[in-house]
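Quick one: co-fold with zinc ion.
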Amino acid sequence: MKKYIIIILVLFTMGFSLSEKRMVEITFNELTQLQQLVDMGIDLDHHRTHTEVHAFVSDEEFQLISQMNFGIREIPNEAKLYFEALKQNTMGSRNPMEDYHNYIELTAFLQDIADNYPDITRLESIGQSVQGRELWVIEISDNPGVNEIEPEFKYVANMHGDETVGRELSLYLIEWLVEGYGSDPRATDIINNTDVFIMPTMNPDGFESGSRYNANGTDLNRDFPDQFSDPNNTTIGREPETRAVMDWTWDHHFVLSANMHTGALVANYPYDGPSSGVYSACPDDDLFIHISLAYADAHPNMESGGFSNGITNGAQWYAISGGMQDWNYIWEGDFDITIEQNEVKWPSSNQLAGLWEDHREPMLVYLEEVHDGVRGIVIDADSGEPLS
Ligand code: ZN
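Sure, here it is.
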C-alpha cells in the first residue's frame, strides 16, 4: 500500500512541476530588483531588458510577485505553440532536411553519418535521458576514439528542450565537417588537428514534449555544481542528463566549449553569479571576452541583440545558480560560454537555412580558437613519460 502511495505522490509531483509553471513577463523599475527574483528562486528565462524579464512561475510565485513591487502578466509561450503546430504537421513525417529532426530522425541522421564516415567519426551514447532516450555524442577526428596530442573541443546544444536552433545547427555543422574532409582545406584542417565532440541534444525528452525542462521538470542549466550555492563537484542528486555530461567531461580534457541556446542574441561568458546586474569577472575575464567576441564578430548582426558588441558577462545580464558554463570553467578547466543564437526560441523551420548561413562562420571561428594559444606536453622529469 505504502508503495502505491509513493508512486502516486511521485506522479503527482511530476505532473505538478511540469504543468504548473506559466510563462510571464515581469516588469521592474530598477535592475537591482532582479536580485529579489533570483533570491526567491524564480526561474528566469533568457529574455531580459533594463525594465523587463521573462520567467517561468508557479501559481504561488505569480501571487507572491504580484504583491511585490513588480508588474507581472502571463504571456503566450510561443515555443510551446510552435511545437504543438509542428507536431500536428511535421513531427511524424520523414522530411528531415526541411523540418526539425525529432528524436528518431536525429538518431537516424547521426547513425548515417557514423556509417558513411567511419574513419573520421565515432558515435556514442553517453547515457540515457529520464525517459530512456540515448544521449548522443559524435566525435569527429582523424583518429576517432584515440586520445591524440590534440586539443579536445565540445559543443552541447538543446539542454533547454524548447530552444531548438542549436540542435539543428549542430547537425548541419557535423555534416559540413565530414563532407568537407579531404576536399575543403578548412574542414580537413579542423579534423586533422582537433578532437571535436558535438552533442546535438542534451535534453531529448524536453524537445519531444516542447518543454524547457527535462522529464522530471528540472532546468538542466541550473543542475550543475555551483561555486556559490552548491560547491560539491559530484553527480549525487543530479538529473541523469547532468550526470551523463559530467561523467563524459571527466573522461576527457576539454579545453574549449560552448553550449547553444535561444531566446536572445548574445554570447554570454562566466561568471553567472552571484548577483544579478553586477559584473562578475573570473580570473580569465580577458580571454573570455576574446573568445566571445570571436563568435559575435563573425556573426552578421549579433551586436543588434541589445548587448554591447554582442557579448555579456553572465551575472551582469542575470544571475543563475548551477549553470553549466561556470562548472566547466571552475572545476574542469574548460573555457565554456553560452551562446544565445536567436531571439525566437523555436523559429519556423524555413528559417533554419538562414540561421545556418549566419552562424556557420561564428561556429567555425569559435572552434578554431582552440588552436589560439600555447600547447605542448608536460613530461615527468624522471620517467620521461607524459603526465595525465
Ligand atoms: Zn536556454
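If it helps, The two ends are 53 Å apart (CA to CA).
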